[in-house]
Amino acid sequence: MKFFYCILSLLFCFTANAQATRKYSNEFMNIGVDAAALGMSNAVVAKTNDVNSGYWNPAGLTKLEDKQLALMHSSYFANIANYDYAAFAMPLDNDSAFGISLIRFAVDDILDTTELIDDQGNVNYDRINLFSTADYGLTFSYARNLPIEGLRYGVNAKVIRRIIGDFASSWGFGLDAAIQFENDNNWKFGVMARDITTTFNSWSFNDEAIARIQDAIEGQNQELPETSEITIPKLQLGVSKKYVFRYDYSLEAEFDLNVRFEQNNDIISTSFASINPALGFEFGYIDMIFLRTGVGNFQTERQLDNSETTTFQPSLGVGFKYKGIEVDYAFTDIGDQSIALYSNVFSLKVDFSLFR
């Protein structure tokens, strides 16, 4: 339990200064991974138990029985932005496991027209270059069973790399900590504390490239942003229960609370923290075919007439698993019920026991 108390202490210390930091930083690390999880509106922190646990709750890695590989791809903003994910995990022994994952969120082939017009005022299309803005998150995960039956913990070490062409780049580092508990009645509980030490990003700017931007439009120069940013801690708590009917059918439900230590437009919002609930369901048949649905991202939005309305983000997904290979699909924000990102998401998971 000392590990649990340590997490709470760190969260308390760093949230005390939450209002002095940016509300949104490294948001690409909060989108989520795995179409199976996204189909349940990301309500999986208690139930996750595979290679994707490195992202959702590293404590779940201890449930691995063999090596696993996961891949995912999705596109946003009419295929302008690409979101890709790859992960590998393996058990180290009967009580511990290790994982590594990489996330890339990027907009590629952006036109750089800062040198389109030369010093004589001539337009020269040969002077147009292409650049990319890309965010990378590399995560190393470790998980271990605790002496108490059904209790396990996990930790993540994250390296963040963000690049905006040759204009600016940054390095960042942060830690996550998590626990899971499962009893004999198929009840599961999970806690995931992200960025418990705050994730610090340090930016550097290319003076020559920045000068091109500032000189491109006369009178439109802007000051450079701060060279450092801090991602404040976030907390995800979940509880799930699995029901089995007539041996062939199963239904697993999970309810999560996502907590940010800041005030925003979440459905529950205070000066200390904002809370956003999520609910997900997974229906399975012979542990081969899965149908998933969920609802989350409840937001209070102000309309043009100054009235307020509550929006939400529903999701739907299907999955197929056969002999260690699982293919999943998810569609988020059905019916465009919110202003959040929506996408078609595909993912693949391979269990290496297939090759035995």
Strands, helices and their partners?
Layout: H1 2-15, H2 35-38, H3 53-56, E1 68-76, E2 81-91, E3 96-112, E4 129-145, E5 151-164, E6 168-182, E7 187-194, E8 199-205, H4 207-216, E9 228-231, E10 234-245, E11 249-260, E12 268-269, E13 274-285, E14 289-302, E15 308-322, E16 325-332, E17 344-351
Antiparallel strand pairs: 1-2, 1-17, 2-3, 3-4, 4-5, 5-6, 6-7, 6-8, 7-10, 8-9, 10-11, 11-13, 12-13, 13-14, 14-15, 15-16, 16-17
Structural notes for this entry:
The chain is mostly beta strands and 356 residues long. It has one domain: monomeric porin ompg (Porin, Beta Barrel), CATH 2.40.160. It has helices at 2-15, 35-38, 53-56, 207-216, and strands at 68-76, 81-91, 96-112, 129-145, 151-164, 168-182, 187-194, 199-205, 228-231, 234-245, 249-260, 268-269, 274-285, 289-302, 308-322, 325-332, 344-351. A 14-stranded antiparallel β-barrel has the order 1-2-3-4-5-6-7-10-11-13-14-15-16-17. A hairpin with a 4-residue loop joins strand 6 and strand 7. The chain starts with a helix and ends in a 5-residue tail after the last strand.
Overall shape: it is: globular
Count of strand segments: 17
Percent helix, as a range, is: under 10%
Order of strands side by side in the largest beta sheet?
A: 1-2-3-4-5-6-7-10-11-13-14-15-16-17
Give the second-level CATH assignment, the architecture: Beta Barrel
Order of helices and strands: HHHEEEEEEEEHEEEEEEEEE
The SS-based structural class is mainly beta
The CATH topology annotation reads as: Porin
CA(first)-CA(last) distance:
38 Å
CATH class: Mainly Beta
Taking the sheet with the most strands, its summary is: 14 strands, antiparallel, barrel
Q: Please compute the radius of gyration using only Cα atoms.
A: 22 Å
User: What's the CATH H-level homologous superfamily?
Assistant: monomeric porin ompg
Average pLDDT number: 83
Spans of at least 5 consecutive residues whose pLDDT stays below 50 are 1-21, 334-340
The DSSP helix count reads 4
Strand content: over 45%
Number of domains: 1
